[in-house]
Amino acid sequence: MLSRTLSLLLLSLVVTACSPESSNAPSTAPSTESRTASSAASSTAPSAEPTAERSAKVGIFYLEGSLDPKNMFDAWVLMRVGAAETLLRLSDDGSLKPWLCQAYRVVDPLNYELTLQPGLTFSDGSPVHAAAVKACLERVYALNPRALQYFKLDHITVHDDLRLTITTQEPVPELFYNLCEPLFSIIKLPADAYATIELPITTGPYQVTAFVPNQSVTVQANRHYRKQVPLLDQIDFLYQPEEQARTMALQSGQVALIPTVNYATLPLFTDKADFQVLRRISPRTNVVYINHDNALLARKELRQALDLALNRAQIVSLIGGTPAASLIAPDLVQGFAPESAYDPERARQLLDKAGIIDHNGNGTRDFQGQELSFNYYFKADHGSADSALIAQCLQQDWAPLGIKLNLYPAENLAAIMAAGDFDFFSANDSTLPTGDPYVFMYSRFHRAGDANFGHYANPQVEALLTTMAQTFDSEPRQALTHGLLTELKADVSALFINHIEINEVANQHLRDLHLYSFDYYFIDDQVHYE
Questions:
Q1: Residue 349 contacts by C-beta under 8 Å, 6 or more apart in sequence?
Q2: Are 505 and 250 in contact (CB under 8 A)?
Q3: At residue 18, does pLDDT exceed 70?
Q4: How many C-alpha atoms does 252 have within 13 Å on its Cβ side?
Q5: Alpha-carbon distance 377 to 122, whole Å?
Q6: Tens digits of per-residue pLDDT, 219-249?
Q7: CA angle, 234 as apex, 230 and 239 as ends, to 5°?
Q8: 50-260+503-529 CATH
Q9: Which of 29, 94, 250, 298 lies at a 20 to 30 A Cα distance from 490?
Q10: Domain locations along the chain
């Protein structure tokens, strides 16, 4: 169980992004010319042939056309396969710790200094130095629009081979946490730093040796890795977006490890001695976003009624996790323990009092000539089918109130979100993508947020976010977080459904697996065969 996340991370100093599966811009597959150039620049031969006894196949639910950090969320895959590393990383409790750097400090509100570990190398044996880190960060900042969500870069100063300073255009109290995002993975750049890189040269325990867009990634042990650990010779990651395909592949022995098994399917593995199941509550929350441009949904009493009529306990019995009384799980925020009421009778009273009733007797409530009939869009998200179950539960919970919910599975949900052509849509969101909530809250709930597709606007929320953007001290920052969570819930900014229990399942031959709270960490340098 997670605990004390925000308090621990803020003691050091005190983020964005929805899951890759809900990105609003697709990754771009490398061009033939770029692939040819980058392949020559990034080929690294393994030192020994892999053996079947020390190789594994893994099913994964997300893969697109590239492994290049410049393309949207593609670096998440690069980190999940054990190849990419960032300057800093997060512990399971959300606290910050060094990774490629050995020290970090705030010089002043605009300057952030980092010192690299000495003796670091890329997977081709070439040295990692501050100038290479500077070039890598500048490249992703210039080419990946997501970088702008985390900080506005002014410039980077290299002091020597190990030390550099990031200068921002405005204070970024959570900057060191933001650098944990896989987007800021450190890779070796070719001569043309802006070319697409097909097989990135990285620093992690594994190096990418083969990649088929939208199909598979192959990694082999990085013989230049800085630690002596029991690495596997080779791991083949197979793209299996459907949960049923992954579970069947694991049962048949086609793969040795899979993430994200549906709650209803877990008993197939938990009751069998041949499998090991790892589970934990995560920073992820299933959120149903509301289109506040809809005149009916802009009425707070209607949103309150919808929230009260949600039977979260019933939903949790179907998909697992814990009922969500706020955006972030209470276990992740010290001193914050909200409650979520289920009171359909109170919901009816609110609607009746507001004059939102069934005037024509057709079974659907209406207000000023508008019927309460809403369009709800959803798609499988983060390798799970939970979104469809949530949609069906909401439809059933609201029908007795006289509210009609029309369900639409959507292949291109991102386009619908961006166009605002919805009343509701659901998302499996990492609410603490880098251990700090500021960037995520700003992007979703500030009127200027780039992912505020429902056009939510609340002056109190925006004032709290403005103060938070200037606050470095831990206790005031935590108090601001509490205030934001409380106001977002009270105003029914969105419908917070459940805090998600993540999982991974493996056969009994893989040893020393670790299920990380922050799910861009997956394969690490401890996994091996027994």
A1: none
A2: yes
A3: no
A4: 8
A5: 44
A6: 999 999 999 998 999 999 999 999 999 999 9
A7: 125
A8: 3.40.190.10
A9: 94
A10: 50-260+503-529, 282-501
| 34 confidence band (pLDDT: 50, 70, 90) | very low
In the block, tokens 């340098």 appear at 525
Asked if the domains 50-260+503-529 and 282-501 are classified in one and the same CATH topology, the answer is: no
Q: How is residue 13 annotated by DSSP? A: H
CA angle 183, 187, 189 (to 5 degrees): 115
Higher pLDDT, 25 or 494: 494
Amino acid identity at 102: Q
The 10 Å Cβ neighbour count of residue 215 is 10
Model confidence pLDDT, tens digit, residues 204-215: 999 999 999 999
Looking at every residue in the chain, the average pLDDT score rounds to 90
**What's the CA gap between 104 and 90, in Å, rounded?**
14
The answer to whether 486 and 182 are in contact (CB under 8 A) is no
φ, ψ of residue 301 in degrees (nearest 5): -65, -30
Helices 474-490 and 459-468: angle between axes, nearest 10 degrees: 160
Q: For residue 279, count other CB atoms closer than 10 A to its CB.
A: 16
Q: What is the pLDDT of residue 8?
A: 37
Fold classification of 282-501 is Dipeptide-binding Protein; domain 3 (3.10.105)
Which residues sit opposite 267 in a β-bridge?
none
Residue 330 DSSP code: G
